Amino acid sequence: MSSSTFNKNEIPSGTLRLMTEIVSYPILLEHEEAMSLSTQESSMYDVSSWILYLSQIDEILSSFQETIHESLQKKRNQGSYSTTTIGGRTLRMQELGNQFHLMQQSRNLISERAVTLLPGSYKLWNDYLSFRCNVYFPRSYLITSSEQSSRYKSTISAFERSLVRMNKYPRIWLKYISFVIHNDSTCSVTNVRRLFNRALLALPATQHDLIWTEYLTFILKRVPPKGLFTGGGGGGSAKDIGPVTLSMQNGTLEDERYPWNIPHETALRVLRRYAHYYNPTARELLADVALEFGRYGEAAVLYCEILNDMDFLSAHGTTRHELWIKFTDVCTEHPEDTRESGIDFEGIVRGVLNPQGGEGWKVFDDTTRKEDEGDGVDEAERQEKIRQQQAQLQATLGELEGTLWNKLALYYIRSGEFEVARSIYEEAMESVSRVRDFSLIFDSYVKFEENVIEVMMENMNEDEDEEEVTEDTSSSLEHTNNSNMDREDFDILLGKKSKITDEGASEENTTADIELALARAENLMKRRPLLLNHVLLKQNPHNVAEWLKRSNLYLECGQSSQAIATLNDAMKKVSSKAAMNGSPADSYKALASLYEDRLNDYTKARSVFERICCPMPEYWFRDSDDLAQCYAAWVEMELRHEHWDQALSVARRSVANMPAGSPKVVRGLIKSLRLWNLLLDLEESLGTLQTTKDAYNRLLELKVATPSQVLNFASYLAEKKYFEESFTAFERGIDMFPFPHPGAKILWKEYLQAFELRYEGTKVHRMRELFDRCLESCPVEDCSTFFLLYGKFEEKFGLTKRALSVYEKMCTTIPATEKLSAYQLYVAQTIKYIGITATRPIYERAIAALDDTPAAKMCLDYAKMEASLNEIDRARTAFTYGAQLADPRTNPEYWGEWHEFEVSYGNEETFREMLRVKRGVQAAFSTVNYSIADLETTSKVEAPLSHEEAIAMLAAQEGEELDQTEIEKKSGFVKAKRAPEIKDLGEVERRAAKLRKITSGLISSTEERANNFNDEEIDIDDD
Fold first, then answer.
1. Residue among 739, 671, 759, 740 nearest 709 (CA)
2. Higher pLDDT, 504 or 325
């Protein structure tokens, strides 16, 4: 600014001194010269020029601080002539402190000039106020003198002047408020509160979150939850955190000597203003603070409003369940305050637990109805809102039912109304439908009764102690009294006689109360099974087992009438379609048994069955078997009382043809196997032969019979010597149960055995026709049994040729898995009746028909048979043919037998031939893979003799002695070339390709050699 603008006499001396100090620094002089140019070239209205000017002063101040710090670190005097250069000016070290303070004042002066010329610049005001708050006025500086107070006031003045233009900037307000909070020596809450209010009035609503965050932090002395704010005030970054919140996090909000004592009422008023008019989510915070300050009634009202608001979302992350717990805790712990605040806790709980009536909901909605009416809400909309609230509240209750009942009882216990609390507990146990809720209520009820007994016992003990003290005092007074007053007058004076009388009556009342409390607790424990059973039945009224259990509980208590009423209720409430854990028929049977066993009333027991066992029963079962159980129970009861005719009559009536208008369940009794079995047993025991036959015939006509019932009918007729009728019963049963029914096999087997037992060999042709009919319709997998029966019959009563033909047909008919056993049986029977030589074609057909493994077994048996006939070449041919079917890895028994055969009957050439065949077969099967379990099973078989051992055994049998060289020569193997056998499967795989060719040539040569034998000895086709 030009110096000619102002007169020197008008400039204050302090300002002139500071200007002189500024121009003494060459660096700052340049900026002053730039400001003093003409108006067109001057930069005094350029914000960036002032910011650059102020930053240059800040650098000089930083240089001052560094130089002062370095000089203090050296801890020695540099002398009066020690100098330093700062900002182009040379200064002595002793002047640094004074020059530093002058430079701070100079910076304030420059800032004042800048904001005077540019009062609308946010940067200049923010830089100026930040310097005054953080540098010029240190945060930890205590206000104790007038100079410091003047600095404080000048800073406040600067803030007020800035707000003339900067009142729409929240950071200026927050900086102002933070400065007052940290530096106001009076700790005036009112001043801070007014500043916050001014900020809220000045700023737009979109920026109120920034102010409210700081406001609540100051009021609560803790940072509010982040979810409470939707704007920038709730952010977590350092840029979004305000100065008050940052100070709270750093622990520098208040000084120990100057604490901020915020009245509870002030905090609550601020929170009410915020929660009710700005952010309804803060109602939970307001409720928590009210609870913390002892305003329990207000807290209960707030929690009630929150629970009544279905759109409420907790900023603390509190669930609806937790809100209910908080609300109930406040109401139960402080019932008087809750009642005074207008909260009808009982009405709310009952309205929530029993929403069907609607009265409870009216009580619950009273807190918000007036607000809705004031807002002009339509009645239909309000009713819809209430219904939505009801649905949502019921959905959020979950398993809170038992807890709410307990809280309601505790509410009256805390109020001193014990009888009302007991009635609440009783009602709760009758109302809940979950076992968990019942357990909570019952345990709380028992604990309450135990506490009542405990308090009564303690009061009685205290009364006894006081009585003992009173007696001791009176005896001492009587002993020290030397007057002539008689004992009666002295007792009257002390009031002892009347006191004794009153105490005696009080003691009797206390004892009676204790006995009553004990009886009440004992009765409660006895009632627990019944109460729990009631809960389970309320949860599922169609649980038949629980109804029966309830009846038994009443019987254990000696309450027969209650047990009868329970069973009658079960018949009314249990639905046949939803019944579980038992049949509805169990209720009728239990009721009849109760009349019969407990009350010895046979007539009423019969009347119970007559009510249900009739063409139009009083209860419609889902299944006919349930009604059949009732008929069966009725018959058994008649039998227990030896009413034989009545029992048989009931059984016959149960399967009789019912009228056309009868229910489907009643008409279905005619097909009940339970009733038919019972009737047939009774007919066989109590009826005549004709009635029994009629019952069985009717059963077969209705096609309800089972194979076992057909067998019983046939056996019954056979016992009565009605054999042809018995066979007729078998025929009817076979027609009802043809193959492949599982019962057909049993019926045919019993039929054939019974026919054979009756006629033996007198009616062979008829027996053969039965066997032929059976085998014609019998499945392949079941026919082996009948072939064996047929063969045994022919062996016993028929011809051998027919028996062998039956066995031959069996070998070609039965499944492949059973053919080996069939052929072995065929061979055995052929040897038995014809001779061993006649088995050769059987062996040939068996080998051709069987699979590889059983065919190899048949080849082995064939070879053994030929060896037994001394047909060595035929046996060797059989071994050679079967070798191609036997893998040495899985069938070592075959090769062991051939090995023993060659050792016993062969020579060196035949033994070598056997080994060559074995190697060829090994190569042929080298591509076949087996499981480890199969190989381990076959490895357990004893290994055959080695080649050298076999040659040595042959020499020993012939009586010759051979040395090792001759053994090697005879065996035909060369040492150190290769092993006599291939033991490694991997080696077999590597040589597979080469050995396949050798195997094919070996097998063809073996066949040619076998064909060159004598036809009589080699040709196995000839007998």
1. 671
2. 325
